[in-house]
Write a structure and sequence with these properties.
Elements (H helix, E strand, L loop, with lengths): L1 E6 L8 H12 L3 E6 L12 E4 L9 H14 L2 E2 L2 H7 L4 H7 L8 E3 L7 H8 L3 E6 L9 E4 L4 H10 L5 E5 L3 H5 L1 E7 L2 E9 L14 E5 L5 H10 L7 E9 L3 E8 L11 H15 L2
Parallel strand pairs: 1-2, 1-3, 3-4
Antiparallel strand pairs: 5-8, 6-7, 6-8, 9-10, 9-12, 10-11, 12-13
Length: 287
């Protein structure tokens, strides 16, 4: 049996998380191979299962990536499945979650091709500080924090990209500075472990690339239930998932993102989750 752990050109080798997976699969008699998704020489039919892992440039090549997903999905078993990838690629899925009664950070959508006065939008919404980012994005790409009294940088970003790129605006939740962003990791729809991601002082981005701190944590009361409702709203079966939440047990939780394409799963902080993920992969390799 052979499994492809899919990467991207800037990082063709496996991440530390995925090295854990590869070692675990090898120990179970399954060969695990890192493969760049854009590599045209790869015969995907040679793999018994293809697992999306660090395809962290998909948002820069969305049409090509989704076409590749469909091709691979026809050739072999792809996880998560193509239908899930298509649904999750645009953050408009947040509206689907909201329509099912799930608490989601409020979002104002800006369609590409329009001319938008950002200061006017903030005045109309009443939001003092907002996070501005593309509807298709990852790793805080072209994402900025904008204050109602200082919109120049955000306006320049919109003037440059909105002609061809859909954008979204969400109110900034300052609780992230104190409580961090809570990430809950699931395997096969079952909760595995949780981490809290805290931005470095003076920044709003919780990713490690920007100095964010990642720490294992016990899932607070109420958080797993919100995350489970998210997964129940997904239109299909998932092998892996990460639900990012803001809030606390007292005030409740809001969904920031539901990551089903190439999320960091922080497996180093959840050894039990590693075992469950390995078991789930092996089960999906069965004829």
């Amino acid at each position: 049996m052979q499994v492809a752990l899919v990467t991207y050109p800037a990082q063709p080798d496996l991440s530390s998380d995925d090295r854990l997976l590869a070692r675990g699969l090898e120990a179970r008699g399954v060969s695990a191979v890192p493969v760049v998704w854009q590599d045209a020489s790869v015969a995907w039919t040679e793999f018994d299962l293809v697992l999306l892992r660090s395809t962290w440039d998909y948002h820069l090549h969305l049409d090509a990536f989704l076409h590749w997903v469909d091709v691979v999905g026809e050739a072999t078993r792809l996880w998560n499945p193509p239908s899930i990838i298509h649904w999750n690629a645009r953050k408009t899925y947040l509206d689907d979650l909201r329509s099912q009664g799930i608490s989601v950070v409020p979002t104002h959508w800006l369609a590409s091709g329009n001319v938008v006065d950002l200061a006017l939008v903030l005045q109309e919404t009443g939001w003092e500080r907002v996070v501005l980012k593309p509807v298709v994005s990852a790793s805080a790409w072209n994402t900025c924090l904008v204050h109602r009294e200082a919109t120049a940088d955000g306006q320049q970003l919109l003037d440059r990209l909105l002609p061809s790129t859909d954008f979204m605006i969400q109110p900034y939740r300052s609780t992230v500075e104190l409580d961090g962003e809570l990430s809950l990791i699931f395997v096969g729809g079952t909760f595995g472990h949780a981490v809290v991601k805290t931005p470095r002082r003076g920044d709003f981005r919780s990713q490690e690339d920007f100095g964010g701190r990642i720490e294992a944590t016990t899932a607070p009361t109420g958080a797993p239930e919100v995350a489970e409702r998210c997964l129940a709203a997904v239109p299909g079966e998932t092998l892996y998932a990460r639900v990012d939440l803001l809030g606390n047990p007292h005030d409740g939780y809001e969904v920031v993102e539901l990551e089903l394409i190439e999320p960091s799963l922080f497996l180093e902080h959840g050894p039990g989750t590693v075992s469950r993920l390995l078991q789930a992969i092996v089960q999906r390799l069965a004829p």
